């Protein structure tokens, strides 16, 4: 019996270590810079890191330095970092981006995308591979998220 449990535990550990590939994500949203961001054009064949945020969220504000660092470390290596807000206008996200020194694309009107990505709260982070398939999801704030480790796998 113990041997069967050990074999089962090892099998489950192996399955848990395998990379997950979820559905393909495509989106076209307005950018606070006045342009339209189309994932098929603006991030063609690039992995994408989506950070779902809200201007009122304290944990989102605490996450911004980590996301800025991702842009600094991986933007030149091909990662497209994108902040997504559900706000209906650019005003709130634009002020937020300016206040916190955001150096990556900031999109708004992202409510439908958040719903499709099954975002139940913010902050919420989604990593897409070069084919824009979901490979990793993180919910909530934690300084221990393994963003860099997972990003290295999709570059």
UniProtKB/TrEMBL annotation:
<dbReference type="Pfam" id="PF08534">
    <property type="entry name" value="Redoxin"/>
</dbReference>
<dbReference type="InterPro" id="IPR036249">
    <property type="entry name" value="Thioredoxin-like_sf"/>
</dbReference>
<dbReference type="GO" id="GO:0016491">
    <property type="term" value="F:oxidoreductase activity"/>
</dbReference>
<feature type="domain" description="Thioredoxin">
    <location>
        <begin position="18"/>
        <end position="155"/>
    </location>
</feature>
<dbReference type="InterPro" id="IPR050553">
    <property type="entry name" value="Thioredoxin_ResA/DsbE_sf"/>
</dbReference>
<protein>
    <submittedName>
        <fullName>Redoxin domain protein</fullName>
    </submittedName>
</protein>
<feature type="signal peptide">
    <location>
        <begin position="1"/>
        <end position="19"/>
    </location>
</feature>
<dbReference type="InterPro" id="IPR013740">
    <property type="entry name" value="Redoxin"/>
</dbReference>
<keyword id="KW-0732">Signal</keyword>
<dbReference type="InterPro" id="IPR013766">
    <property type="entry name" value="Thioredoxin_domain"/>
</dbReference>
